[in-house]
Fold this protein.
Amino acid sequence: MSEIRITRRAALAGAGSAAMLALSSRLALAQEKRLRMFWWGSKERADRTYKANELYTARNASTKIDGETLGWTDYWPRVATQAAGRNLADVLQMDYRYIFEYARRGALMPLDQFMGKALDIADFGAPSIDCGKVDGKLYGINLGNNSVAMLTNVSAFEAAGLKAPKTGIDWKEFSALCGELTKAAKKDGFYGSMDAGGLEPNLETWLRQRGKGLYSDEGQVAFSADDMGEWFAMWDAMRKAKACVPADVQALDKQNIETNPLTLGKAAVAFAHSNQLVGYQAVNPNKLAIDMYPTIGAGGKPGQYLKPSMLFSIAANSKNAEEAAKIINFYVKDPEGVKAVGVERGVPASPAARNVVAADLDELGKAMVNYIGMISDKIGPLPAPPPKGAGEIAFLLKKTNEEVGFGKATAAEAGKKFHADALAIIARG
Amino acid sequence: MTDAAHHAPVSVTAPPDNPGLPTPLWQRVLIHGVLIAASFVMLYPLLWMFASSLKPEHEIFSNPSIWPKSADFGAYVRGWFGLRYSFGTFFWNSAVIAVLAVIGNVLSCSLAAYAFTRLKFAGRDFWFAMMLGTLMMPHHVVLIPQYVLFLNIGWVDTILPLVVPKFLAVDAFFIFLMVQFFRGIPRELDEAAAMDGCGPWRIYWRIMLPLSLPVLATAAIFTFIWTWDDFFAPLIYLNDMGSYTAQLGLRAFVDSSGKSDWGALFAMSVLTLLPVFVVFLFFQRLLIDGIATTGMKR
Amino acid sequence: MATAVGTAVPLERGVRRRLALGRNLPGYMFLAPWLAGFLLLTLGPTVVSLWLSFTNFDLIGDPRWVGAANYVRIATADEKFWTSMKVTFLYVVLAVPFKLTFALLVAMALNKGISGLTVYRAIFYLPSLLGASVAIAVLWRNLFAGDGLVNQLLFWAFGLKGPSWVSDPDYALYTLVILSIWQFGSPMIIFLAGLRQIPQDMYEAASLDGAGPTRQFFKITLPLLTPVVFFNAVVQTIEAFKAFTPAFIVSEGTGGPVDSTLFYTLYLYQEAFAFLRMGYASALAWILVVIIAFFTAFSFLTAKYWVHYDD
């Protein structure tokens, strides 16, 4: 630590030349292994991550870990820039969507060589290991599982004399129930549910319940124009029945916690991910319940699945890959590391690690762990990796749902257009 | 140089604070009423930010009022000491970068502006057009090549990429600004000085700079504020948290994939505004008094 | 004869060169820092980005030359390009004149002797300090949402029920125009500095000649301020063409609702960093540069008819 302090101060004083910097950092390298770790997250995650790194370096005195952290929006431009310069952090947090983009372009290191050695994760079980694989090679280590979840302000329903929606409810019942709440609550500008017609995870869950999905194994669009027409029509009907918020209220939602209609007190139901329960609860005065998404009723297939809420990867340019793998292992398997990290990144994939964190869970942590346990026999397999262009299609979904909501297209037209546009985006790559 | 100063018109003075007849009372009340109402609209976000820093977390977004039901200053402590480094570190980092940027910009941009306005040389118009051209480039696309360049000379993760360019006048905005102001300074002044045997350096230093204090102050204010508020360049070039600027520090409190500390974010946002506000108050004096104190006292 | 000419010419050339050097040297010495920055830091990356606009660079892999393919696609098959052009032009046309007029008016008002001037001036600059922070996003929602202050006032005053201005695709862009006008601090300060540079004795002389305030404004203030007006107009236009952050207030950078706030640079940024198509984004950037350059050149050509310089 001391070397870098001196260097930094020298640089700040304006006296440090590039040569001095290079020299002193080379001196530092000679004595110890310096690694960089980069993750997105909030202050809570930063606290836990720094704590874990301290515990690790206390045990491995010759290793130093420089922590770098930012929120999600700022994280990706920096990762992209660093990838372009082949200067990625040794250990970096990856998202299930982006890991394919980065692995296929050669920015990440395959980790199979460390399996059974530095990485002792066999007890994850195949699904929780394979979710980090791209084209048959392991590029990311699951930091915790999550799944999509419906978060409900139960007291709003109870105050209106209604029963809050629970796991197992189907979309029809859900829509009717939310419509009733809007009527019964009699609060201007308050509705049963948010409008999730533009949310990709909702569409995916619904498509899977119908036996389809977003993308096929070959990376092609796996839904039809009719599917999409029905989807947009379902939400359009809910908007017209005032079961969900109108388009101009939903458009205030920037798809983050602080602008969600639930947080703004404009709806009683939000669709989110299970690891976001803590974040949503913190900014909501009412207690939130966590349940599964509505189903399509009898004959439907499981729509939800467990996915890694985030993964740790190692940069292809890392000079300390072995040590980086050991650090990752510390996070997912070592009782000390696992305890420090808790369930903040999702529920640990290793059963042994789950036992470790179970001991000191608070109420919300327990609710989250129980939810993951509860859904485990009601879910389907992890879908095929999304193709290039999937991110753009997620933007397109939001936009198309808005077009229907603001009356600029009918549901059927929107379905056809969305399907055609999605095909074009995939073809472009 | 004293000769040159004699040519400075004595009449170049700031308007007195209350020219003409005293305004009637009702008119003053009206003016202040309008100004105060306008001020409220301007201040509202700050008030909201301050109120939010005192509110309990679950009230921040569900209760939009700017009167917190209860006030708790805990967020200021959590924010200041909450991240791995105290916000004092981030403030220091920001201040060092901003101060160096001010010095660099004022010096280098005024040199270039002087060359463009007062000196004749081959290719002047061409270079001027090039300079303006750099204003037009969306910086997102030159970012990657620039990053690779700085990476190759070992400057990434130091403040050099944020500071050195300022000494090389890469902010064309300020050159152009100074050019426009320099052209408003009567040419007779430097012609007279030249006849007295002053070289271009002396004219630049003894006549142009003192007479253009308002625009130099403007450039200093803007450079400080924009550097302090900038997050994209530090985002790309500063990796280790110990070298984060205040704006980067703010971006480590909040994230949608977990539990954020909104109170701390707003508390530190309020504090982060204070230095720029103070700098603004201080430098705008220079801006206002600028002309009154130049040309006369030497 | 022949030899005489032969020796005379190089001599003359040497003298001329020395003379030229003497004439050009001071200029280049003053220009040296900028020139160094331009040649070492700016020019290289700019040329690289021009080259990248002819490749399929995806940030991580090696760029592959694709000829004019990016430009061809932009011109023929990119709906979003035209959408974002429309959004950006509308924004430039509305935001720039209003913002400048407003900034000039406030600067003139604040140039008068009013007690507490320093405080007002600082407060009026505040919105420009806040950039695109969460606080401004919340303020805009509280003002312009369906149940926001503006609609409450409309209802109270006229019994009208307004739409949710900030999140309606027909109006969202106009709320960003208002945001731009509200953040008038920078041009205001520059106008103020310009007003302060006008010699006071000109007003005194005009007063003695019996010129009223309106006459003084059009005969003295405005003509002497034209270099600053010109500067603000050019720079604000360029900035408005490159507007990026305001869209984060309304859409967190998605350009919604229904692409109504998809600014050109926002689209460019999405292509570059969200969809990892840096080659395509570079092509978009160069088209914008050409457009801005056209408008800037036009303003410089017309400047000689209305901008009044002392030199």
